[in-house]
């Protein structure tokens, strides 16, 4: 039972919160609508100020929703627009904190997984893939996730998968080759063997051949063999990113080395990649029978000290042990030695 006055207060609080969120959404939306390469610095600065003034959870949710509604549509988005939006995320990821990029990445990957399984007709999957590819290009996420996605696509190997593999390799292929050439080599050989086994099932043979040629061009580091490959726009924006991040004084490596499985099961096993991320749920290890309490070697302590410990509500062995050590030590050095034991 919730008393009426508490209910009224709760409703008033909810209305106030809703109003605040609506105002915040309007402000963030206004900034994102004006986003372009020349004013990226000022917009990222204004968003940083909003992060300082509002709760990070609200800001992450609002920013992610607005960016996804801007970039993920049923038609293919212009590459330049996607790049600029992801560059903004990468700058905030470095200047505000890694939870910005982590929240955005998790939402994008889960949405991609959902759409991929539902066999959506539009270009939403490609747009989400472009976001993931550029998150890797702008050093928000490690190549581990990209290889996980590619392995998943190679394992099913339908015509839609071939499209997505080609799209990803064209965007980040040479970066993957630089980061982990051995993993790329393994992936190419896996794709070749898969192509040989399912060759007769697929109708569009030329697409498969084109994908294998692209993979060979990557392995041989031959950029000319990939039609329409132009690394210049990404390089230009990377240069801008370095300038903005360098100015903020946060040059440390903040790449999220997280796998596809970890992202998809984040609600079940927690988000280990975010420092201090609160997690409520079932324990990660269910087997509690093997848990052993640490033995405390305090030595013999008098019943008087134990009674005192009980009186002070030292209700576990560890607390009682520490209390007894502190009460019976001769000096701080003696206490230190006993606590270490």
From TrEMBL:
Keyword Nucleus in annotation: yes
GO function term, MF aspect, one: RNA binding
Main location group: nucleus
Alphabetical UniProt keywords: Nucleus
Keyword check for tRNA-binding: no
Highest taxon in the source lineage: Eukaryota
InterPro entries in the record: ARM-type_fold, CWC22_splicing_factor, MIF4G-like_typ-3
Pfam assignment, any one: MIF4G
SUPFAM superfamilies: ARM repeat
Cell compartment(s), UniProt: Nucleus, Nucleolus
Annotated ranges, domain MIF4G: 25-222
UniProt GO BP: ribosomal small subunit biogenesis
A cellular component annotation (GO) from this entry: nucleolus
Stated role: Plays a role in targeting PPP1CA to the nucleolus.
Quaternary state and interactors: May interact with EIF4A1, EIF4A2 and EIF4A3. Interacts with PPP1CA and PPP1CC.
Protein family: Belongs to the CWC22 family.
Name assigned to this protein: Nucleolar MIF4G domain-containing protein 1
Gene, per the UniProt record: Nom1
